[in-house]
Recover the amino acids of this structure.
């Protein structure tokens, strides 16, 4: 890479210390609960982001293919809804950018004037994405922002001189609990202006086996992805988790409507985390909850939009109705 092609919303040594401290605190809090848990956002270091890219290509992980089908077949309609006023296109969590490029290609073909701001917590993902955009679309005005969603929303609230269109694809919203999703949507609404648009991807409730298979792939990539949390604790917090002593298990919780992912201790064991100066005991078969992936009914989506003062402009489904990209308008 040549020069830095993105902006860090919070900079300097202080922020590195704060992020590290937050990680340490979250791990301590999570492992002290009676049902131990670790926040899934910490899976995404360089290796975790790479494993997620691999997940998106897996035959069992239908979500990405369904959303790509939607974007390819509905890109003209989406572009038309945005209109011909100059706008900011803000993407929360850019992933590998494959899906975004489908829309960008259409907007540029239509000569729509836009400024693109991908926001992601991973500095590597942003740097790589901006590099590939500059190669593919030399005329596109783009600036990557490295920050978490909430910091990104604060930055967004200052950009009120142009129409904003926010992309939150991939059912990333599904990794929030319903409470956190509500807090996120109300912060998003506050950061935006009347008539701004958001396009949100939701994975729909469907055949249970199909959902469970998507999180229990044959190659074991999803298991490695979840275990990356332990690898990261070992490296960054001087832990001594033995990865072979944990079994990955993902199941569908019919009451919550979510895939729940766990790492189950195969044996009774003790784990020491040097930086926390804490020795944790795990019973044989004790689970650590690593991720929730919520699945939605269209009525859930309507409720979420209404409660947070958004109006649904359109729902774009794939041909199997596995997934929906829902286009919402801010009403103020
Ligand atoms: C990023 N997120 C929407 C994925 C999901 O489906 O919950 C993360 C993932 N976890 C396991 N496989 C994919």
């Amino acid at each position: 890479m040549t020069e830095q092609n993105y902006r860090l919303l919070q900079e300097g040594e202080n922020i590195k210390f704060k992020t590290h401290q937050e990680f340490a605190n979250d791990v301590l809090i999570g492992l002290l609960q009676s049902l131990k848990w670790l926040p899934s956002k910490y899976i995404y270091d360089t290796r975790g982001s790479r494993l997620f890219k691999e997940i998106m290509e897996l035959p069992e992980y239908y979500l990405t293919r369904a959303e790509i089908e939607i974007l390819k077949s509905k890109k003209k309609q989406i572009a038309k809804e945005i209109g011909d006023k100059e706008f900011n296109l803000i993407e929360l969590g850019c992933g590998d950018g494959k899906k975004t490029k489908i829309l960008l290609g259409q907007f540029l073909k239509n000569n729509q004037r836009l400024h693109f701001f991908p926001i992601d917590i991973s500095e590597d993902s942003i740097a790589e994405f901006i590099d590939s955009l500059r190669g593919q679309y030399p005329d596109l005005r783009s600036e990557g922002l490295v920050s978490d969603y909430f910091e990104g929303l604060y930055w967004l609230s200052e950009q009120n001189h142009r129409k904003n269109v926010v992309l939150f694809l991939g059912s990333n919203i599904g990794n929030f609990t319903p409470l956190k999703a509500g807090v996120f949507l109300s912060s998003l609404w506050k950061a935006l202006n009347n008539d701004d648009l958001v396009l949100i991807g939701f994975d729909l409730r469907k055949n249970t086996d199909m959902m469970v298979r998507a999180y229990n792939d044959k190659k074991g990539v999803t298991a490695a992805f979840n275990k990356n949390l332990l690898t990261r604790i070992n490296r960054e917090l001087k832990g001594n988790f033995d990865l072979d002593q944990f079994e990955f298990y993902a199941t569908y919780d019919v009451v919550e409507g979510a895939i729940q992912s766990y790492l189950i201790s195969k044996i009774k064991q003790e784990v020491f985390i040097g930086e926390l100066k804490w020795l944790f005991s795990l019973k044989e078969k004790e689970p650590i909850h690593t991720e929730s992936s919520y699945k939605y009914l269209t009525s859930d989506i309507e409720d979420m939009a209404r409660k947070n003062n958004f109006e649904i402009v359109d729902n774009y489904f794939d041909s199997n109705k596995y997934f929906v990209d829902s286009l919402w308008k801010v009403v103020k």
